[in-house]
Design brief:
16 helices, five-stranded antiparallel β-sheet, alpha+beta, Heat Shock Protein 90, rod-shaped
Length: about 600
């Protein structure tokens, strides 16, 4: 999952490195490819289902037709067998079987004539039968003497006939087997099934033998050869073995281990009696042939419909590629008509970025791009005017800052300090006077700071400490102060003289009515949205109206304290952003001013 995310990031990065024309072409090409794939896939699935349904319907109709033919064929076989067994030739042969076997040459010739009469009556007229054989109850058989017999096959057949004689059945289709007889010119003994029927004497009604009509597999397969083609096989199975098949290589094969055969056996036939199963290569449609207790199977290779689907898929893909390439040419033309004006605007922006504010977009395009070019030119005109205004405002800001410093450093401030120093000298407090001069020197050193407007928190706290020490000399015993700062915040940046106006306001106005006991606390700590500096005093405080009017600029007349606080708030917003600045919080006694600043250890003015 991590590798996928990294890969997606790389793709996204590479995508955004492309120009807008390339990105539009890539996105539209991707959409077209996805749309084509979805369309071809959906039609492919629909066509597949239709072909499967068509194949299923066709296979079921073929099975129904073949089973009807089989019914008619076996009905004909049964009729022929009845005709044979009631015929004079059959009755005479089996009634007098002992005489024919032990008789002289005249009797042997009579037997031959009787058999030939039957053969000429049926086999000569119907090519479906390969042999007609008679069996008596003593284990003797009578067949066409022109045929070549195979002893092993004959013994197997005699065993099957004996079992039939012992059974209660009047007729039966014997299982698939090798015929005991063949024509002299035939190379092998044919696979066949035999219809056997018991023969009863027309006079006494007693059982006198059995007549067998042998039907080759190749003759039976002609009944369904019309429905077989490339990819379609038809065969019959009984007891898990194939007993009839158009393809003789399938004969005698066991189906017991075939997965599709097991799956079909686990299913219930549909309302028409059909069962369907499949494997990777074919569909199998099955229906029970109740006339003989067989199951007819139609095996339809999936290659039949896959050929049609493949032809369609190739056609659709080629058509999709042609449409895609044609559309891509049109898309490129469209993208160029859009991106060329945008490239002109981009080039103009680059020229303006280099300082050529007289450059304008010369796109004469209708619609949205023409409007964009017009509005861009108008924006550049306004920007040029705004730049001039900003330069003027910047000069005003510098003058305002200088004025602020000058106003803060009023002659009254200097006079008070000088008077305090003179008083200390008169009182022979020379060390304190020297210390005060040193504080004053340190204060000015921090204020001037080589003209820098942004200083570190540590430098600002040093200026504030010097100022408070000086004020303690001017107002001895009136207040004390404490300063705490998290060490990791000392090197972060702040506007110079941010604290001085706040401290001055607290001393001159907060402690104005107090003779002593004043406390000033300065705390620097990290807050939720950056650095926070809190300045808290326990002085007289201020009411809500005054507190709200100071920062909003609504106070009437000029007051040094309101100007200092409001100017400090504006300077912070100017340098660090509108989300930072001052917030005055009311207390039960005194005032708390909270300063919000960003936590940054580097600053570019």
């Amino acid at each position: 999952m991590i590798h996928i995310k990294e890969w997606m990031k790389r793709v996204k990065k590479e995508f955004y490195r492309k120009n807008i024309a390339e990105r539009i072409v890539m996105v539209i090409a991707a959409l077209m490819i996805v749309t084509t794939i979805c369309f071809v896939s959906s039609v492919f699935i629909i066509l597949q289902k239709q072909l499967v349904a068509t194949t299923s319907t066709s296979a079921k109709k073929d099975l129904e037709m073949v089973l009807e033919k089989m019914d008619m064929f076996f009905q004909g076989v049964e009729n022929d067998a009845v005709s044979v067994l009631v015929g004079e030739s059959c009755q005479t042969l089996l009634e007098n079987s002992g005489q024919f076997l032990q008789g002289d040459i005249v009797k042997q010739h009579e037997k031959y004539v009787l058999i030939q009469q039957v053969i000429n009556s049926y086999i000569g007229q119907k090519s479906s039968y390969s042999a007609i054989t008679f069996y008596d109850l003593k284990g003797n058989y009578y067949a066409n003497e022109d045929l070549v017999e195979e002893e092993e096959y004959l013994q197997n057949q005699m065993t099957r006939v004996e079992k039939f004689i012992e059974s209660d059945k009047k007729s039966e289709l014997l299982e698939l087997h090798k015929s005991p007889w063949k024509q002299s010119k035939a190379k092998s003994y044919a696979d066949c099934i035999s219809y056997v029927r018991k023969v009863y004497s027309m006079g006494s009604g007693r059982l006198i033998g059995v007549v067998e009509i042998e039907i080759p597999n190749r003759e039976l397969s002609r009944l369904y050869e019309t429905v077989m083609s490339d990819g379609i096989k038809m065969y019959f199975e009984r007891d898990n073995h194939i007993i009839l098949a158009g393809d003789e290589a399938l004969l005698y094969q066991s189906l017991e281990d075939r997965r599709w055969y097991k799956a079909a056996g686990a299913q219930s036939p549909d309302e028409d009696g059909f069962t369907m199963a499949q494997d990777k290569g074919a569909w199998y449609f099955m229906k029970e042939y109740k006339g003989q207790n067989w199951t007819a199977v139609s095996e339809v290779s999936k290659s039949i419909y896959l050929t049609s689907v493949t032809v369609y898929a190739v056609t659709m893909v080629l058509l999709g590629v042609a449409v895609f390439l044609g559309s891509l040419v049109l898309v490129k033309f469209l993208v160029k008509s859009i991106t060329w004006p945008l490239s002109q605007i981009t080039q103009t922006i680059v020229e303006i970025g280099k300082g050529d504010y007289h450059k304008r977009v010369a796109v004469k395009d209708g619609g949205e791009l023409g409007t964009l070019a017009f509005e861009f030119n108008r924006m550049v005109d306004k920007t040029e005017i705004l730049l001039l205004e900003i330069v003027e405002k910047e000069e005003d800001k510098r003058e305002s800052e200088l004025s602020l410093i000058q106003m803060q450093m009023t002659p009254h401030f200097f006079y008070n300090i000088l008077e305090s120093i003179c008083g200390l000298i008169v009182m022979d407090e020379k060390k304190l006077a020297i210390h005060t001069i040193q504080l004053l020197s340190g204060f000015y050193r921090g204020v001037l700071n080589k003209g820098k407007e942004i200083i570190t928190v540590k430098q600002e706290l040093d200026i504030a400490s010097n100022y408070l020490e000086i004020m303690k000399v001017c107002y001895p015993g009136k207040f004390t102060y404490e300063v705490t700062c998290q060490p990791e915040l000392e090197n972060h940046f702040i506007c110079k003289l941010t604290l001085q106006p706040i401290l001055e306001n607290a001393i001159h106005h907060g402690f104005q009515e107090m003779s002593g006991g004043g406390l000033l606390s300065i705390r620097v700590f990290a807050g939720e949205r950056g650095m926070v500096i809190e300045v808290e005093d326990n002085g007289m405080g201020m009411d809500d109206k005054t507190r709200k009017s100071i920062l909003s600029g609504e106070s009437r007349g000029f007051r040094m304290e309101s100007f200092g606080l409001r100017n400090t708030d504006e300077r912070i917003k100017l340098y660090f952003g509108s989300r930072y600045g001052l917030k005055i919080l009311p207390l039960a006694q005194g005032t708390k001013i909270r300063i919000f600043l960003p936590t940054r250890e580097d600053y570019t003015s």
